Amino acid sequence: MATDPDCIFCKIIQGKIPSKKLYETEKSYAFLDIGPVAPGHSLVIPKYHAAKMHELPDDSLADLLPIAKKIAVATGADQYNILQNNGRLAHQVVDHVHFHVIPKPSQEQGLVVGWPTTKPTPEELQAVHEKLMQKL
Ligand SMILES: [Zn+2]
């Protein structure tokens, strides 16, 4: 299992840094975020250290979302966001893959999303589609 001795989340998994643990499997660990944007804001992380989602083995990745689902249900939130950031520009603060489970109890609490929609032409959309399809 890949670990990084300097990684705060690897230290949490190893119990070297305390956390409010919520759930654990052979491959994953979940705990309360210490800087919540709403009560119940939690993190679900792989035990395998990888900075970005595409660097994580599929079996480890597949273990995470069912846990996010359990936690979302446990919060009792009727509305919530699941968020996973990759890279500084994408607002990733800790370089260890993590999924946020963020209850959205009110307009003011929870995740506030900016969604700068663009309007590509049909040709631009087609070009993007062809580019992606060449790699899938
Ligand atoms: Zn780590």
Automatic annotation (TrEMBL):
Domain HIT: 8-111
Biological process terms in GO annotation: nucleotide metabolic process
Span of the annotated motif Histidine triad motif: 96-100
Domain of life: Eukaryota
Pfam families assigned: HIT
Active site location: H98 (tele-amp-histidine intermediate)
PANTHER family linked to this entry: ADENOSINE 5'-MONOPHOSPHORAMIDASE HNT1 (PTHR46648:SF1), HIT FAMILY PROTEIN 1 (PTHR46648)
Record-given protein name: Hnt1p
Source organism of the structure: Malassezia vespertilionis
